[in-house]
Amino acid sequence: MGIRQKLLSFLFSQLILVLMVSNHSNAMGLKLGYYHKTCPNAESIISKTTYRFISRAPTLAAPLLRMHFHDCFVRGCDGSVLLNSTKTNISEKDAIPNQSLRGYHVIDAVKSTVEEACPGVVSCADILALVARDSVSMIHGPYWKVPLGRRDGRVSILNEVFAELPAPFANITQLKQMFAAKGLNAKDLAVLSGGHTIGTSHCLGFTNRLYNFTGKGDTDPSMDPNYIVKLKQKCKPRDTTTLVEMDPGSFKTFDEAYYTLVAKRRGLFQSDSALLDDPETKAYVILQASTHGSTFAKDFAESMVKMGQVGVLTGNQGEIRKHCALVN
Questions:
Q1: Could you say which cofactors this protein requires (predicted)?
Q2: What is the structure's pLDDT at 21?
């Protein structure tokens, strides 16, 4: 009996160990209130500093949200998008899809304020995740609790951006594959695309749909022809400077209007229109458009938490950068 009990006890302890390890890898070492002991005021310092900028320039919310998204899709949420290029390496920051990112000065200001309070404790990756959440919340978008404990990566490579980051001209198959590679499903794709309810785009992101869709000087048949006429008034071929609202009329407001536009075939990018090419993503678009976004805020919060856990570095991995644009 003694041996049997010992064996059972041993097996039980092994089972607990397996469960602990799998649970740890599921949560990936992130937790709410991670800085509670090491930097108790971290989250309020970050929130106050972010508010200083967003209260003066609410349009910064969109690029800051986008920056977090662009960070997480390349190498995971490790702050690699914040790193400057060096003499020997061109970083993600200088890739064409990231050249239109703005708001680095907000991240730098937040980082320096946090460093004054708690030197070397709070990562740039966590700051980016919190600033994105706070910015959206400050323009009356949803609020979500951000599990923390991300560490900063030391590697940032330009070419990885093109391989990992979904392009504005991606089709539904490519989009679903790229999201699936990050552990995000078709619903997450439909939900996170709703982030296009705020912000602007350069004409370059969609003019092929207006002037030369298949290389024969034609327009994209999946786009409302009346909308094409309006966009042509704003964007001439080869225009690289003009900015266009992604969600005309409410591009500063975090709301469900994006889905109403997509449902009317007025999504700005091919990747927006593509949501109508899959039964699941299309059903989500129609649901939000027809119910005034009944579940959008809740869904967006959930998908953002999920995205914020993609490929994170925790424990002893990576480092805590002193300056977000430079490795230590």
A1: Ca(2+); heme b
A2: 44
Work out the number of other CB atoms within 10 angstroms of the CB of residue 213: 17
pTM of structure: 0.90
Which positions make up the binding site for substrate? Answer: 166
Task: Please pick, among 70, 202, 292, 323, the residue that the annotation labels catalytic.
Answer: 70
Distances (CA, A) of 283 to 134, 248, 263, 278, 310: 29, 23, 10, 8, 26
Binding-site residue positions for Ca(2+): 71, 74, 76, 78, 80, 92, 197, 247, 255
| Dihedral of the alpha carbons of 231, 237, 238, 241, in degrees to the nearest 10 | -30
Q: What is the CATH number of domain 41-163?
A: 1.10.520.10
254-308 pLDDT tens trace = 999 999 999 999 999 999 999 999 999 999 999 999 999 999 999 999 999 999 9
Tell me how long the chain is.
328
For the chain, the structural domain boundaries read 41-163, 166-307
Question: Has 202 been annotated as catalytic?
Answer: no
* Model confidence pLDDT, tens digit, residues 296-321: 999 999 999 999 999 999 999 999 99
